[in-house]
């Protein structure tokens, strides 16, 4: 694709910041190098995403930021084949998840970088957000001033660890 217009480079789009939940088992697979895509039934398309990760119970804390490349949008079968390449046997669980309720489209987001912070517990988030409920789906951070303040505060704290994820070619 030509990324110039009248000989001027077109800048990459700014990442959209979102808050989403994730089970700790999937998060740990990223650190082990066994998970290089995230799979969702609905997601943003055409833009990179900076994902603020709320780890579900037992961790119950906002603790990480994951940089995602723009989502791959395709049939549940095609997305399941990405899951299968990532971890043999995984496609068999991803396909029915994506196809539930007759859905014809699923999303695979290539994981680029994972950063972990000390984070904020559910109780701390409850005070910071004047009431907190773990995210269902995704919340666009910049549409919610309280979330924007929490996420800005998270990334201003020291890193605990970080890694870059190499996504293999299809």
Structure description:
The chain is an alpha+beta fold. The protein has one domain: Archaeosine Trna-guanine Transglycosylase, Chain: A, domain 4 (Roll). Helices cover 27% and strands 34% of the residues. The chain contains five helices and ten strands, in the order E-E-E-H-E-E-E-E-H-H-E-H-E-H-E. The chain has helices spanning 24-31, 76-86, 91-99, 122-128, 145-155; strands at 4-5, 8-9, 16-22, 37-40, 49-55, 61-68, 72-74, 106-121, 138-140, 159-164. The strands form two sheets. Strands 3, 4, 5, 6, 7, 8, 9 and 10 form an eight-stranded mixed beta sheet that branches. The chain has a two-stranded antiparallel sheet with strand order 1-2. A hairpin with a 2-residue loop joins strand 1 and strand 2. Helix 2 (76-86) packs antiparallel against helix 3. The mean pLDDT is 92.
Map the helices and strands.
Blueprint: E1 4-5, E2 8-9, E3 16-22, H1 24-31, E4 37-40, E5 49-55, E6 61-68, E7 72-74, H2 76-86, H3 91-99, E8 106-121, H4 122-128, E9 138-140, H5 145-155, E10 159-164
Parallel strand pairs: 3-5
Antiparallel strand pairs: 1-2, 3-9, 4-8, 5-6, 6-8, 7-8, 8-10
Protein name: Transcriptional regulator
Organism: Nocardiopsis exhalans
């Amino acid at each position: 694709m030509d990324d110039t217009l009248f000989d001027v480079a077109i800048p990459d789009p700014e990442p959209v910041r979102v808050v989403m939940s994730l089970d700790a088992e999937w998060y740990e697979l990223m650190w082990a190098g066994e998970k290089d895509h995230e799979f969702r039934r609905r997601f943003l398309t055409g833009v990179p995403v900076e994902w603020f990760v709320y780890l579900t119970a037992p961790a119950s804390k906002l603790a990480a930021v994951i940089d995602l490349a723009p989502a791959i949008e395709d049939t549940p079968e095609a997305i399941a084949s990405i899951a299968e390449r990532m971890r043999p046997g995984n496609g068999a669980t991803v396909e029915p998840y994506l196809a539930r309720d007759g859905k014809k489209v699923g999303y695979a987001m290539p994981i680029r970088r994972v950063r972990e912070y000390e984070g904020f517990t559910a109780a701390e988030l409850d005070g910071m957000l004047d009431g907190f409920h773990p995210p269902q789906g995704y919340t666009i951070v910049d549409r919610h001033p309280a979330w924007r303040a929490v996420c800005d505060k998270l990334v201003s704290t020291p890193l605990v660890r970080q890694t870059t994820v190499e996504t293999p070619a299809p």
